[in-house]
Amino acid sequence: MSRNGKDATPNGKQELTQGEQMANALDWIVNDKMFADVQLHGNVKWTVLHLVRVAVLWVWSSKRCLVESADDAIGKSKELFCSASIKSYQVLTNALVKYTPQILPRLLKRMHQLMEKVDSSKFRIGLWMVLAGRRAIN
After folding, report:
1. CA–CA separation, 107 and 111 (whole Å)
2. What residue ranges do the domains of the chain occupy?
3. Which of 13, 40, 93, 94 gives 44 a disulfide partner, CB atoms 3.0 to 4.6 angstroms apart?
4. How far is CA 119 from CA 20, 23, 28, 43, 129, in A?
5. How far apart are CA 37 and CA 21, in angstroms?
6. How far apart are the first and last CA of the chain?
7. Could you tell me the mean pLDDT of each successive run of 10 residues in the chain, 138 residues long?
């Protein structure tokens, strides 16, 4: 069974929603160990992992306004990861302003490592690093 409790289809593949696919990708890329040494303020109720997940979902939100898309991302995070410590646009943006300098280098390093691990033969063409994104069409 998949994370959503769905059984595999007859061809053996699981039918995942785009949200579930995003959740699986985030689970593969980020983890609590990456951020173990990030020092958070004493009254913070969220984890760095939760902040990163919400930030990624915020960027991918289909909503037009910043606050509306942040609320959408917070809701999706609760739905996909059962975590709801970040409860508002203000908390999200303040946290990103304050902690991005500590978080971003760890994310870049992790993504670099994963890209090399997945296919090091195609990681570079000459001096150029190949980066691409693909949108699934359902």
Report:
1. 6
2. 18-129
3. 40
4. 24, 22, 16, 42, 12
5. 28
6. 21
7. 52 77 89 92 92 94 94 93 90 96 91 79 69 53
